[in-house]
């Protein structure tokens, strides 16, 4: 019953994601993080300076009067929170070469939803009749090893899967996005587009223009 | 943050932001609030990234922040419930199309906050009782009792669906 209700809850929750708004550029979050880091450093510096000033003032006061005053209020309380603006300094150097979006949501009759992946990109369930015909690992960064792109075939049908997972591998955080093959693109091009839609720029130096001209894929 | 670490942070966000925002949405039921929760969590993650990335705990950290930020948000004075003569005039939450609605989703949304969070962490993300307790900041016994009550409510929906 528990497994049944798990799958039922999982399927229904996943269905509730229909109409999901577009994601932000990940560099926006990095830019916000940098600003927060600067604010934190500024606040720490201000507190440090305030503490030094208080100590110095108390020392000087003690030297002059010979009687230290207790209960002095710390300075620096007027620094107040620093408010950010709504515009973000996103790095403008990223050019988006491959801007076509993957066409998510294959024909449900084909039935790819039974595919499940392990935390290394391997399919673990529902795959006996599925053949993996293409695969790239570590899509988003060679050092961040928690993603794979798979091209899979079942019968006469093909799907492109983008699998990401939690690096800790313990918490069931595998997510699979399914893209329907598009006759105007290759699997490589879809991976490059998926990368570009998130991060901009070319995926591993891949040039979409080559495929748009029908010159095939770059062999790696 | 050094360039290499920042590149890894950006790669993590690129790979996982959709999944994390869906967690936030499942918790709060609103995409705009989910975006806000995710922004809060990812900003905090940036500050702690060097330490967390080394230990491989970045995702669990973000999930914890998402859940706790949602709890904090519910505790804010302007979100506390007030008694009024008439029901407040507010837009309905953006729901699915008629054909996509389900009794289960409605039932999940109607669960008390902690029961809903517990069910989502345990039965959607597949966390253990121990992990769920750690992420929600409650005891394992409380997790079990929340889960039990929530599943009791959901099973009755399941039973009704089976009879129809």
Major β-sheet of chain A, in short?
Answer: 4 strands, antiparallel
Number of strands of chain B: 0
Total number of helices of chain A: 4
What is the number of domains of chain A?
Answer: 2
Number of self-contained structural domains of chain B: 2
Uncertain residue ranges of chain A? 68-97, 100-105, 212-220
**Unreliable residue stretches of chain B:** 92-100
The secondary-structure class of chain A comes to alpha+beta
Radius of gyration of chain B: 18 Å
Can you give me a brief rundown of this structure?
The complex is a heterodimer of chains A (220) and B (164). The model of chain A is unreliable at 68-97, 100-105 and 212-220 (pLDDT under 50).
Please give a structural write-up:
The complex is a heterodimer of chains A (220) and B (164). Chain A is α+β, with helices and mostly antiparallel strands and 220 residues long. Chain A has 2 domains: 27-79; 96-212, no CATH class. Chain A has helices at residues 2-15, 26-65, 187-199, 208-212; strands at 116-117, 123-125, 130-137, 147-154, 157-164, 175-179. Chain A has a 4-stranded antiparallel beta sheet, covered by helices on one side. Chain A is elongated and about 90 Å long. With 164 residues, chain B is mostly helical. Chain B folds into 2 domains: 1-78, no CATH class; 100-164, Winged helix-like DNA-binding domain superfamily/Winged helix DNA-binding domain (Arc Repressor Mutant, subunit A), CATH 1.10.10.10. Helices cover 74% and strands 0% of the residues of chain B. Chain B is built from 7 helices and no strands. Chain B has helices spanning 3-28, 31-55, 58-75, 103-110, 113-124, 129-136, 140-163. The longest helix of chain B is centred in the first third of the chain and has 26 residues, at 3-28. The radius of gyration of chain B is 18 Å and the shape is globular. At the A-B interface, helix 1, helix 2 and helix 3 of A face helix 1, helix 2, helix 3, helix 4 and helix 5 of B.
């Amino acid at each position: 019953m528990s497994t049944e209700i798990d799958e039922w809850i999982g399927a229904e929750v996943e269905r509730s994601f229909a109409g999901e708004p577009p994601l932000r550029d990940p560099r926006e979050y990095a830019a916000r993080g940098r600003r927060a880091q600067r604010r934190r450093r500024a606040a720490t510096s201000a507190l440090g300076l305030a503490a030094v000033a208080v100590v110095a003032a108390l020392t000087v006061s003690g030297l002059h009067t010979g009687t230290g005053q207790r209960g002095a209020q710390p300075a620096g309380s007027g620094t107040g929170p620093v408010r950010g603006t709504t515009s973000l300094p996103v790095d403008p150097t990223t050019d988006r070469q491959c801007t076509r979006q993957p066409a998510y949501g294959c024909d449900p009759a084909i039935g790819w939803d039974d595919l499940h992946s392990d935390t290394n990109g391997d399919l673990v369930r529902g795959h006996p009749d599925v053949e993996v015909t293409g695969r790239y690992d570590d899509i988003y960064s060679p050092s961040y090893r928690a993603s794979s792109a798979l091209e899979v075939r079942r019968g006469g049908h093909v799907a492109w899967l983008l699998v990401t997972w939690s690096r800790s591998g313990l918490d069931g955080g595998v997510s699979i996005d399914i893209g329907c093959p598009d006759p105007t693109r290759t699997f490589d091009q879809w991976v490059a587009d998926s990368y570009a839609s998130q991060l901009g720029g070319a995926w591993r130096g891949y040039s979409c223009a080559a495929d748009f001209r029908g010159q095939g894929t770059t062999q790696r | 943050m050094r360039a290499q670490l920042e590149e890894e942070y950006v790669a993590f966000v690129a790979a996982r932001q959709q999944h994390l925002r869906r967690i936030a949405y499942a918790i709060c039921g609103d995409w705009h609030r989910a975006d806000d929760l995710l922004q809060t969590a990812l900003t905090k993650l940036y500050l702690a990234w060097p330490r967390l990335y080394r230990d491989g705990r970045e995702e669990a950290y973000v999930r914890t922040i998402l859940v706790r930020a949602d709890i904090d948000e519910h505790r804010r004075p302007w979100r506390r419930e007030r008694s009024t003569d008439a029901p407040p005039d507010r837009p309905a939450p953006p729901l699915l199309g008629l054909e996509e609605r389900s009794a289960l989703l409605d039932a999940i949304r109607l669960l008390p906050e902690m029961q809903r969070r517990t069910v989502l962490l345990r039965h959607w993300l597949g966390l253990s009782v121990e992990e769920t307790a750690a992420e929600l900041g409650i005891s394992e016994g409380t997790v079990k009792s929340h889960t039990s009550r929530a599943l009791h409510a959901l099973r009755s929906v399941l039973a009704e669906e089976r009879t129809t």
